[in-house]
């Protein structure tokens, strides 16, 4: 079991995953969760912290506190994405983002797509230094990716457990998807909803998919990647039908992917290098000069 948890992976994969995660944290602040800064405009009595916020305990957020977290986290996440000071910057980013999420989820609504990302932020500082493209394998990095993978799959499995806990089989046989389509459905969803019984079948399919998601760990690598591709296609369908993206979860799920093979900077340099190369002249194929005509052939004249 310990060998499975610490299965070594290339350091280049850890470096790529780290860069992606920290860049997403910066993007999350300005694209997905900028509304957190407005939460503190309401009276403090409406702040009901999550259990972890009550245990620590954390102060009631104020505009000054949340603003300071926002700017510090934005700058430090971008610095952490470079791979420098992985432990110092990593732990700091995790602590700040953790508080950012507590503030976000302590006013009545708790999203369940952040678990994998938070585990990744907590585990990455333990992976140590890693450079892009480095094929050297690391068990510490393997552990960081593995616990992130476990958190990703737990998100699916525990979602199914919550459905049974609060809705039972009525979740599968009810009008859950129909209600979601009415609230936030797209034109594609409206077309799908017209097919008799299709939404009920889809609800049973979602439950089966979530309950069986841990099987991904038992599959060979090729089939595991194919299954992860199916996971992404499921979320693509949710975006296309009910506009729910699960973006943090999708970022954490790249822990399954051999990211060391994705080298956008190297690819860009190669493209630029090819464009910058001067064309090689071909003397034999050059057209004759307009003034001199075609050059005579070299060699003895033919009688």
From TrEMBL:
The chain crosses the membrane at residues 20-38, 58-81, 88-108, 198-219, 231-251. It comes from the Bacteria. InterPro entries: HTTM_dom (IPR053934). Residues 276-303 are annotated as: Disordered. Residues 138-256 form the HTTM domain. Keywords: Membrane, Transmembrane, Transmembrane helix. The keyword Lipoprotein does not apply. This is MFS transporter permease. It comes from Micromonospora sicca.
